[in-house]
Design goal:
It is found in: Cell membrane. The protein contains ten helices and no strands. By secondary structure, the protein is mainly α. It has one domain. Helix 2 runs parallel beside helix 10, helix 4 runs parallel beside helix 6 and helix 5 runs antiparallel to helix 10.
């Protein structure tokens, strides 16, 4: 497979991932295995994934800000603690042995594929407020931010579920605030990866264009139809690619 073929495949997958991330979160379940599949190391894959994902989350955040759906003042502490968590997670993942990380990623992918398969829809969760915004920032913001810096796929879903279940937000408002925190964690993690010189910029640039297109498409889809389409697709792709990674590892390829 030549460079052009690789670029076209990654571009197409980034479009799909950008669309999925905008609607439901979890696009990294597609882009991370794809980057591993073209020969990047685990750290390069995580770093390059952050470099391309920041364009999708950033464009979605800007769109929702223009629509007046994001309250920046209310989210200030959550933004700060999400960024702190992402930085800590990114620093930790860089300390792991490369071979151990190569084995860990497929396990995480399969685990979160199963999570998406059995989890309830965000819109079905209890909307009663159970935490203050400050407590939410210190728990969900810091914790999910750390997870996003360490690995990432499913971050948007965790944030959205937290906003609905713990703060009582409706699905539209929860999704908007989720994009803001996801962008904060992506940007912070990317900054740490850039300092460590782990980003493959050529691939990141190609995928960033795909992310922008996918985010635009996703923002125009009806939410409930998008979930019905994305859940089986997300589960199938992530499990199949993860099994391939296991097979390659067992056969020493």
């Amino acid at each position: 497979m030549d460079v052009l073929d690789i670029a076209l495949i990654l571009f197409a997958l980034a479009v799909l991932a950008g669309c999925i991330d905008t609607i439901a979160g979890g696009g990294g379940l597609i882009t991370i295995p794809a980057l591993l599949g073209v020969g990047l190391t685990p750290l390069e894959s995580l770093a390059t994934n952050k470099a391309q994902a920041v364009f999708g989350s950033g464009s979605a955040t800007l769109h929702l800000l223009r629509k007046g759906l994001i309250d920046l003042r209310e989210a200030r502490l959550a933004i700060l603690l999400t960024g702190l968590g992402a930085a800590l997670g990114t620093l930790l993942v860089q300390q792991l042995d490369g071979a151990a990380l190569q084995q860990l990623i497929p396990l995480l992918l399969i685990g979160f594929a199963l999570y998406f398969l059995v989890s309830p829809r965000v819109s079905d969760l209890d909307a009663q407020q159970r935490l203050s915004t400050r407590a939410f920032a210190w728990t969900v913001g810091l914790g999910v931010g750390f997870y996003d810096g360490f690995f990432g796929p499913g971050t948007g879903t965790f944030f959205a579920m937290g906003y609905v279940a713990l703060l009582g937000y409706n699905i539209r408002r929860a999704t908007a605030q989720t994009k803001l925190l996801n962008f904060a964690s992506n940007l912070t993690a990317l900054f740490v990866f850039v300092i460590a010189d782990q980003v493959v910029w050529l691939l990141a640039a190609v995928m960033a264009v795909g992310q922008l297109i996918g985010a635009w498409i996703g923002s125009h889809l009806v939410w409930k139809h998008g979930m019905a389409l994305i859940r089986p697709l997300l589960v199938s792709v992530s499990i199949l690619i993860s099994l391939k990674l296991f097979w390659d590892h067992c056969n020493g390829t």
